[in-house]
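Running this now, will post back.
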Amino acid sequence: MFELVMVGNERVNDLVECRSEAKTMLEEYYSVQFFLNDKGPTYLFKLRNISSNGPCILVKQDSSVFKELKVGDILDMEYNQPESLVGKLFKTKIASKNSHDCYTGHSIVELSIIDNQND
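Update: finished.
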């Protein structure tokens, strides 16, 4: 079974290419921060490489942020490099939310970068 995948604005038929791009993203960026509404708090999460589909964050299932994040949501997320004061803003889609056996009470929230807002 083959799946057509979008990376940015380009269609990609090779999932190995997508995985490679996601791995590069994880090597370059350490954490991601975002807010869900204008008056709410800023959330900061470490990017993780525990999903075969690319970058993800680990979120406690009983937290307010987990309850508010919905699969398909598109958020402006700031990706931060280690030891850098300035992050890069990417439009990011919440690709999935899945519980994980190794992290009781937590779910993996997979992220899919749609667009670089810095260009």
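The first strand starts at residue 5 and ends at 7. More later if anyone needs it.
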